[in-house]
Amino acid sequence: MHIDRAHPRKSTCNCPFADGRRVVCKHMIALYFTAKPKAAEDFLKEVEEWEAEELEREEQHYEDLERYVKTLSKTELQEQLLSALIELEELQNWG
Ligand SMILES: [Zn+2]
User: Tens digits of per-residue pLDDT, 25-54?
Assistant: First the structure.
């Protein structure tokens, strides 16, 4: 586990949530609080800002998807829906 104070998103942790991903988990936050209580507020602020950016990106993505879906014809929609449903079933079968 490693905490990068200047760049919280570059911190790493071996827990299932954060392992191999660029996310901030509760362990990083806990360690950061313990190590440097005064800077913890800045750290959390940056995490919150990043999460807000992520949310914005996600909303933008869904808007793009919606625009795309609206350009499709009925036949295309039927084909896309069918393949999406098949994909979903395959994903569930793997679980
Ligand atoms: Zn962790």
Answer: 888 888 877 877 777 778 788 889 999 999
